[in-house]
């Protein structure tokens, strides 16, 4: 597998951040990050996974195995978002609660979609 530097650049640009900001988000030096974007150095698989997680994409996208940058999983950190973490944790523990909340979510999104269509 070969890392696709142009996809890293595309993701960074879509996030609206410069190289220095991307390096800070990834806890690496700007020079090291720049080498990944310039294709001078290929990141390890672990680093690619970390980049994918941080930039909300997949390692498959960064390796060119898929053209879909959408992640198939989401990691929720209790330290970064304690309310969402607690919410998801509660749903995992109580399947009845999960069913009720998902039904409510579906009603809300259906209502929002209907309103959007009516506005068009």
Automatic annotation (TrEMBL):
<dbReference type="GO" id="GO:0003677">
    <property type="term" value="F:DNA binding"/>
</dbReference>
<dbReference type="InterPro" id="IPR010982">
    <property type="entry name" value="Lambda_DNA-bd_dom_sf"/>
</dbReference>
<feature type="domain" description="HTH cro/C1-type">
    <location>
        <begin position="8"/>
        <end position="62"/>
    </location>
</feature>
<protein>
    <submittedName>
        <fullName>HTH domain-containing protein</fullName>
    </submittedName>
</protein>
<dbReference type="InterPro" id="IPR001387">
    <property type="entry name" value="Cro/C1-type_HTH"/>
</dbReference>
<keyword id="KW-0238">DNA-binding</keyword>
<dbReference type="Pfam" id="PF01381">
    <property type="entry name" value="HTH_3"/>
</dbReference>
């Amino acid at each position: 597998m070969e890392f696709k530097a142009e996809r890293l650049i595309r993701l960074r640009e879509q996030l609206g951040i410069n190289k220095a900001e991307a390096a800070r988000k990834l806890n690496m030096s700007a020079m090291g990050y720049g080498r990944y974007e310039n294709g001078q150095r290929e990141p390890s698989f672990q680093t690619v996974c970390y980049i994918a997680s941080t930039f909300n994409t997949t390692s498959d996208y960064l390796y060119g195995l898929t053209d879909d940058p959408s992640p198939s999983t989401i990691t929720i950190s209790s330290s970064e978002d304690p309310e969402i973490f607690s919410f998801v944790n509660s749903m995992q523990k109580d399947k009845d609660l999960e069913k009720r909340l998902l039904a409510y979510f579906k009603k809300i999104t259906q209502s929002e979609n209907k309103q959007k269509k009516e506005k068009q």
